[in-house]
Amino acid sequence: MKNTVTFILSVVVPLVIITLILRDASRENKLLAELKEEYSQPHIPSVDHSKHEVLQRDFDNPHEITATCISCHTERGQELLNSFHFTWEREDFIEGRGVTYLGKRNLLNNFCTGIFSNEATCNRCHAGYGYSDKNFDFTNQYNVDCLVCHDNTGSYEKLRGGAGYPVPGQDFRTIVQNVGRPTKANCGYCHFHGGGGNNVKHGDLEEALLTASRQVDVHMGVDGANLECVDCHVTQNHVMKGRYYGVSSANTRRATCEQCHTAAPHLDNMLNTHVEKIACQTCHIPEYAKVNATKMFWDWSTAGELEDGRAFELYDEQGNPIYQSIKGDAAWQTNVIPEYFWFNGTADHFLLSDKVDTTEAFLRINTLFGDANDPESRIYPVKVHRGRQPYDPVYLTILQAKLWDREAGRGALWIDLDWERALVEGMKYLDRPYSGQWDFVDTEMYLPVNHMVSPASEALQCQDCHTRTNGRMQFVEGAYIPGKTTNAAVDSLGVLLIIMSFLGVITHAVIRYISHRKNKVVTSS
Question: Can you tell me the distance from the alpha carbon of 265 to that of 273, in angstroms, rounded to the nearest whole number?
């Protein structure tokens, strides 16, 4: 009997445990293998546009190109008219506001502050033609720019200051004959350059992703999965999955890790329990801006300074502008450790009509909703961009300056370097009240980090969070995190249990010793 028990404990039980582990590993490896197989298959176009007779011509007017596309793709124009990439506005419900219609076309930020009065230059990244002012016709399908998303030659270029129109003189015949599924280069044409330059705004989206290794991003790395953006940001009728919370508000149509990896992707069930409250990105994106720097601070209050009567610029060792007369001071950083916040997928935004609370240390340009008691909330990594931007100390509203114009003398700050005139022109364009006085307010903007996923071997480890000294979760509130959180009652109870356990062991040992001595005496007698 003793030998049987020994055999079961020493051989059978370990084999069962190993079998269960290998079975789980096999299941996970099978899932990963299936994903790799699925996404390793090159996309094969179903149409060769170079064979279409209607495209065997030269095009002088970009609207003609759109009309030609729609002549075959008959419903796509109307689909684009309902796409956020074209409308730059969504109908969303915001807690405390109700149903709203917000987006890039009417929201503020603390980078270039907003498109108002600056449409001709900002809207180079609009998926349309001619969005030069607030009177743009969003109902005309021939204003849609098909090529900015579907050009596969890599040569299509939009005109700076051209309100979305392309640079004249391009070989449009070749371009239209080589359209297809959007690539990273198509998406990155705009999304890599938000805020006025490569990686300025997002920190996790930049040109390096076109050629990066899997060490930078396991999904987009050329030696990794080499995915295209649309592999995750899947589209139905030109409505795309994905939310950028600088302009979005609702927890709908989000692109998530769980789409592919499920809600229980780990072999270790303890790690899977973390997924309930910890976003995948929190552990798997330990840092962002891994190649090129991202802007972390923008101080508009110092803009306008001159050197020898002329505008000037200063650069850091990496070539990033740390002062520009037209933009003010800036701070940049690479390999940035994110900040961490509870987030449930919904957000609010500071509107032009909202009032600045000067008793607060800073103004939130957007607010990520969520807390530890919200079952929909998880802890997410976030880029926090801090800035200083103009506001009206009388009306207590954020001010929009006119930044750009084609000519000098029209009040554009980037040309005339005159704050007073720029603010007058910007607020006049918006038809908003302006007292004529201005000051600057500190602001923060919160951008969840979703890209630049590191290899699994570089994911955060237990000690990165479960520590009381400089841990990743040191500023996360509302949750008891073992090793990080101090709670007098819990700590005292823990110490008491340890002492009682120790005393129990000692007491047990003493009793056993006394009992043994008594038995020995009895036996001797």
Answer: 10
Q: Give the Cα separation of 479 and 458 in Å (integer).
A: 25
Q: Residue for token digits 């044409």?
A: 189
Residue 207's Cβ-count burial label (10 Å; 0-12, 13-18, 19+) is middle
Write the CA distances from 436 to 179, 199, 281, 419, 420, integer angstroms. Answer: 50, 35, 45, 11, 8
Q: Is the distance from CB of 116 to CB of 400 less than 8 angstroms?
A: yes
196 — alpha (psi -120 to 50), left (phi > 0) or beta? left
3-state class of 313 per DSSP? Answer: strand
Residue spans per domain, the chain:
1-41, 43-100+127-181, 107-111+194-399+434-465, 487-525
Length of the chain: 525
Angle at CA of residue 425, ends 420 and 429, nearest 5°: 150
What element of type H or E holds 36? helix 13-40
Q: Which of 142-146, 190-194, 269-273 has the lowest mean pLDDT?
A: 269-273
Strands 363-364 and 90-94: unpaired
Task: Give the model confidence (pLDDT) of 152-196 as tens digits.
Answer: 999 999 999 999 999 999 999 999 999 999 999 999 999 999 999
Helices marked H in 335-448: 413-416, 419-430
How far is Cα 419 from Cα 437, in angstroms, rounded to an integer? Answer: 11
Q: In Å, how far are 76, 79, 83, 249, 269 from 236, measured between CA atoms?
A: 11, 9, 10, 20, 35
Tokens of 514: 């006394």
Q: Is 165 left (phi over 0), alpha (psi -120 to 50) or beta?
A: beta
Across 89-105, b (16+ Cβ under 10 Å) vs e yields: bbebebeeeeebebbbb
Res. 95: pLDDT tops 80:
yes
Structure tokens at 449: 């980090």
Q: How far apart are CA 186 and CA 150, in angstroms?
A: 7
Tokens of 158: 């939009």
- Report helix, strand or coil for 52: coil
Q: How confident is the model at residue 243 (pLDDT cuts 50, 70, 90)?
A: very high
The SS3 call for residue 474 is coil
User: Can you say whether residue 412 is alpha, beta or left, with left for phi > 0 and alpha for psi between -120 and 50 degrees?
Assistant: beta
3-state secondary structure of 223: coil
* DSSP symbol at 189: H
3-state secondary structure at position 302: helix
To the nearest 10°, the Cα dihedral for 133, 135, 139, 140?
-70
Write the DSSP symbol of residue 295.
Answer: E
Residue 514 three-state SS: helix
Return the residue matching tokens 């640079």: 167
Question: How far apart are the C-alpha atoms of 319 and 455, rounded to whole Å?
Answer: 29
Q: 59 and 217 in contact (C-beta within 8 Å)?
A: no
